[in-house]
């Protein structure tokens, strides 16, 4: 087996990008950095919407700096409308309640067109 390759593959219905909605971790030990590494190991394409930037080290998070919800929504809407679309969504740290409330906006219209379930490999 190739170094850093997962012993499994994604189900074929996830050939479309996975939309990652999460914070960026300055230590690169959590958050969207880890999600991107996992998807890369699985050979899955990704799109990102950064919700916050954390100041973090080995001893934990020192501070969290949320992104403006308008920027987050713009990133999400661009990913949802871009070709080839989105095959799955993974949500991590949102940063604050304003971001959580803002995320209610883009998904109802999109979910009407999306499959209600994804097979688990």
Distance between the termini: 19 Å
User: How many H/I helices?
Assistant: 4
Helix share, percent = 25-40%
Low-confidence spans: 8-13, 112-121
Biggest sheet details: 4 strands, mixed
Order of helices and strands: EHEEHEHH
Q: How much is the average pLDDT?
A: 79
Strand content: 25-35%
Please tell me what the overall shape is.
Answer: flat
State the secondary-structure class: alpha/beta
Strand order of the largest sheet: 3-2-1-4
Q: Give a count of the beta strands, DSSP E runs of length 2 or more.
A: 4
C-alpha Rg, in Å?
A: 15 Å
At a glance:
With 121 residues, the protein is an alpha/beta fold. It contains four helices and four strands; from the N terminus they run βαββαβαα. The relative contact order is 0.22.
Would you write up a description of this structure?
By secondary structure, this protein is α/β, with parallel strands linked by helices. It contains 4 helices and 4 strands. It has helices at 31-42, 69-81, 97-102, 107-113, and strands spanning 18-25, 46-57, 60-66, 88-91. The protein has a 4-stranded mixed beta sheet with strand order 3-2-1-4. Helix 1 (31-42) links the parallel strand 1 (18-25) and strand 2. The longest helix is centred in the middle third of the chain and has 13 residues, at 69-81. It is flat and about 40 Å long. The two termini are 19 Å apart. Residues 8-13 and 112-121 have low confidence and may be disordered.
Topology readout:
Elements: E1 18-25, H1 31-42, E2 46-57, E3 60-66, H2 69-81, E4 88-91, H3 97-102, H4 107-113
List its salient traits:
four-stranded mixed sheet, alpha/beta, 121 residues, disordered C terminus, 4 strands, 4 helices
